Amino acid sequence: MSSEAAGAEPAGAGKAKSKQKKAHPVVFWAGVAIVLLVLIIFGSVAGYLQYTNSEIHHVNVKNLQTAPVKGADANTENILLVGSTSRCALNGKQSGAFGSCAAGVTGINADVIMVVRVNPNTNRISLISIPRDSFLINARPNQNDKIDSALVYGPSQLVLALEQDLGISIQHFAELNFDSFQNVVKSLGGLSMWFPDPVKDAYSGLNVPVSGCYKLGAFQALALVRARHMYYYVKGQGWLYDGSGDLGRIVRVHEFLRVLASQVIHHGIGSFTYDNALVQDVAPQLTVDQGFTPHDMIDLITQMRHVDPYRIPESTMPVMNDPTYSYMYQGYNYGNVVFASEPQDLESITSWLGHKVPGATLNPKKITVSVLGGIGDPAETAQVATQLKDLGFDVVGTGEQTPVGPVVEASVLYKNSALMPDGNRVLAGLSGAVAMGQGKTLDNADVTVVTGTNFSVDSPKVATSTLAKLTLKVPAGSLGTVKLASAGKSGQQALMQLLSAVLDSSSSVPYLDPPTSATAPLPPYDPRACPAKDLQSPSSYAHLSKSEIAKTTPPKTAKKTKK
To answer: Which of 183, 453, 479, 506: CA 20 to 30 A from 209?
Structure first.
């Protein structure tokens, strides 16, 4: 049994899971490509729709939304693609490699969370990934947690969490497992990728000891997309640790998806023998919502048929990493956690949607807001309330609650689903580690802001003419006296907030890593598409001797970091 399998979490473990040593979870990012490929294939084998529909597993998923019928998003659908860690869905032959259900490895997490957006009006397809360790509001029912744990309570909970926390409406759900991915690669006869350097990951089983165009078998392809402890070999330096963990793997898998889709298309969609074999391999391992029929899939294919995989925008929700890898929340250790990051998250969702989020242009004066202190500092709570008033919000009250731990993710809670746009408008006025979700508000306000350790309220926008009148005079020999020239109350308030922010930046607050990028570039050592000339005859293990493979094997004593 692999080390990842041995540490899997039992279903429904709840908070108690965090008292145990953090497992090295198995991740199945590449499954999302299979859904897209199955959609394409269904368009070519329409005569087998009834058979295919009976083979696919349909589950009842609540909280799905109907597609808009008018406006810029008319008929646009967001498809939630999930890669499950469930070993109980594997066939007996392969399950041993990942840990078996019979051996008690029954944990279920959503280690891949991607949403594909299909807009028929613009012929635009875009994909956004949600990091599995994102700590969000109500990821579990009435409990903040990592978003990957929502699947423990079924797909309905994961759909609800994404809709409430990120404002992403979901029209369809699709889930895959390890077997479905490997079957696609087998049907291809392997998958060829260009490896600039040899790579290896002891946890996932990845071992590509050569550079160049290399044909991956089903198991090694899965090992590549599961790899989050990867080493790469550089001549003269030896084995170097990638260190990017889950976030680096997302970037790597985005490239993998493009290669996988391209090679399926290269094999020739429309070949009856090939298409039929691929459908029969994949369909039994595919789980979709009760309303996602093959006919729906064909409708999507009509829109997607001519899309170039390399032109589909692929992004990842920016996050702020807790470098301690030991996040304490209400007395429990949640291990490696990443936090939402503003304004980067709103910007990435806006780009993915293709337009502004609902509520972006609301008048703040019409939104009632309360402030709940989350870090045990009433003075800071009062300051946040004042700053929100300066932004134009109608602040109706303040209060205090017990801090959840040494690091507190700020929260924006909106009272009910109709007030989500109001929540977005408040969120747009904040920066740092702050998440949004639906929940009970203080003083019956439309929105409550719960203060945190790593967030701030943005300064009001001041007219250029006002800023031009401001002067900052510091007498010679004195750094402690600052005088503001008269420029009106709004201008002075803006500059005082700026000075306050500078002073706050030097205060002792828990350190988080800077926000990640929504579109990080592929590192030079990561695998990618083979050049056309090399794709015809990719290398294989066949020409390597055992001694040659051994030369590129990292020592067993290679140090691994917590990432």
So the answer is: 183
